[in-house]
Structure formats: C-alpha cells, structure tokens
Structure of Biotin carboxylase:
Amino acid sequence: MLSSLLVANRGEIARRIVRTARRLQIHTVAVHSEADAGLPFVTEADEAVLIGPANPAQSYRNAEAILAAAKATGAEAIHPGYGFLSENAAFAATVQDNGLIWVGPGAEAIAAMGDKINARNLMAAAGIPVAPGTTDPATTVEAALDAATAIGFPVMVKAAAGGGGMGMAVASDDAGLRVEYDKVRGFAERMFGDGSVLIERYFPRVRHIEVQILGLADGRVVALGERECSVQRRNQKLVEETPSPALTPEQRAGLLAAAVRAGEAVGYRNAGTVECLFDPTTGQFYFLEMNTRLQVEHPVTEAVFGVDLVEEQLRVASGLAPTFDPAALAVTGHAIEVRVNAEDPKRFLPGPGAITTWVEPAGEGVRVDAGYVAGNTVTPSYDSLMAKLIVHGADRAEALARLRAAVAGFEVVGPKVNLPFFMELLDNAEFVAGDYDTGIVGRVR
C-alpha cells in the first residue's frame, strides 16, 4: 500500500478520502484555496498546503501548484476526487511523468472516454447499444439539421467534451435546433475549449441508470451493481439509489455485463462509472458516457456491497488485490442518497452563506458525508453541494422510512438548503412506488 497521499480536491469528497486514507495509516496532504482554509478537510488532513485564491483556475485546477505541493510534502500519490482535474488526461499523464502514483484510470482511458462521440463509437464497436446519433461532430448547423432529420426530432444537442450535465439542450424542431446548436457550441468553446457538438436522439420518458465498475490491478474488470440516478434538475443528479427499482433480474444482468465489456474495451483500471439511458417502455438501454473517476453517489454502492470504494481505488493504484472476492459479490438491502445543496428548494438556484446551525441526523443505517460544519461559510466560488445523506435498509421501504426521518432531522441554518424538496419528493406517489423517470422533478415542482 502506498504511504502518503495528496488529495487534489475539496469539501466532502476530500474529507471522505482523507478519512479512509487515515484509517489505512496513509499520511494525508490536503491542498486548499484561501476560501477553504477553515473547512474540515483541511484541518483533518495530516498536512495542508495553500495553493491559491478562491478562483478554481488558480487553485484546484492549477496543475502546477498541485504538483509543487506534492513535491514539497513528499506525497507518493495523488487522488483527484471528482470534478476539477479528475478527468483531465493531460494532468493524469503529468502526475505519472513526475514519478507519482495517479489514483485513477490511465491517461489513455480518460482521453478515450472524455470525448462523447469517440466514446460512443468505441462502445458501438464493442457491441454495446448506443442511442441513434452522430458518429462525427456536427461542425455546422446545417450538418446538425441533417443529422436531426435522419435521427428524428426531438434530439439532444450535446457538447462532445462536456460532463456533469453541462452543455446539453433539447431541440424539438429545425428552428429550435438552430438556436440550441449555437448556444451549446458557444458554451462548449468557453467551458471546455472544444466546440464539438453531438446530436443524439432525445427520449421524452427515460431513466438514467449507471453501473459502478472497478478495473482491478490484475486486469480484470468487475461490476458492483447499478445506481438509479433519474431524479435530476438541469440534467444534474439530486437522488441516487441502488438497486434500481426499474430493472428485472434479466435486464440487470445484461446491463452489468455490458458495463464490464465497456471497461474491458479501453483496458480500464481503477474506479469508473458506465452511464446509460434506460427506456422503460421497451426495456432497452443505451450507453450514455463513461465517467473515469469516483462518482459523487458512490456511497450507496458501498452500503449495499459492504466495500470502501476509496480503499479499493488505493489498492488498485498500489498494485494490490481487492478486499473482496469478485466472484462472491452480493447486494444486501437497499440504499438511497440525497445531495444536500446550498440552493433554493423551489427553483434550485444557489444560495450560499455562513452556516450558523448544522445538525446531522444519526441512527441505524444513516450516514452523512459532509464538507461543512457550523461556523463554515458556503461561498459562491464552488458547487453548491454541502453534504450527502445516505440511508441503508433491509429493503426499499425501510430505506425510504429511514430517509424520511433523516431528512426531517437534518438542520441547516444560514445558507439556503434543498432539504424541503426531498420531503416533497418522499410524499410523491411516483417516487415512492419506484415508477419514475428523469422528468419527475418537474412534476414534483
């Protein structure tokens, strides 16, 4: 096992990685911006290094500053968490070129999956279903219109280099496509430095289901179940659960097998997620993208399989075997996670501020991964995620009951908070029945 680890991230995920590393007696180094100096992840690490001002471009996306911190502290490895530089193939390669261990997949796999069009083509070649769409970038609006005509409206207009639900829009006709194409392309050029656009069939009623894969040190790829991620606002997830209430055992087996093939197709190592759309009317699933990192929602997988995915990441990076027997993986119970964000529960607009009260729920089957405590300030410089509330029960009904009690017992005063939305969701008949899709937030609202 590696001996020292720099965590190139912030907030709840940095704190969560530090927790596992310290349990494994790995020396931890936190890097932080000026705005985050007082957050728990900084004080709980063995060492902390200031790397820049609040602006992420000058701190958490500043590769030179992070590498300098690693060298100054003698860190042996870098864990990127999610977001920021976690899916930057050039940074992963630079880390390794500097003689450090990268806790993630190889730069080649990150690059291969980072472009949505290239990823679609690779998956199709591996025999994995993909939604009807373009196999090359739509470089002009005319090319986009031709593609949409062939695919059939409505279509999804996507930034090929995008991620995290950003750079996506729906077009229902030619006029709408002209408008959305220009918007998405402009956004992609500004945000990702790549204006490539993908046109893909849009499914009005669809579920978003993903598979957790782990590429082991010996070359095998294993699947650790699926996660239902259909409760979304602005194409970004709010609630995740496992197992998915949508799948039959046969559909689940097919989905997991396809995800393993996806990982094998790119020689995948370490943790990753194969995201798919699932059409409940036909029972067909379609490859959406692969996230070459740890996911925000990984704790629900940990709950039902009894594994620590960060520990497994560190073991793979160290060339060690997993703590579990891949042939004996079994799901126990049901788990649900909600993302506690500093945002208006009605319109989901950010509402940062100083936290005057922070009371976390507790009890059997309840876990909270938080990035903040009372006295901290949620700034507008970063994502609005403050914490993740995870519950685990013997079945979905027990998990829902525990979630209701835990949401009611989570008290945050100061910034705006979306907890009231989850109380509404837990009263929604569709969600309670497990018969919902990606449009549920609009119907709850």
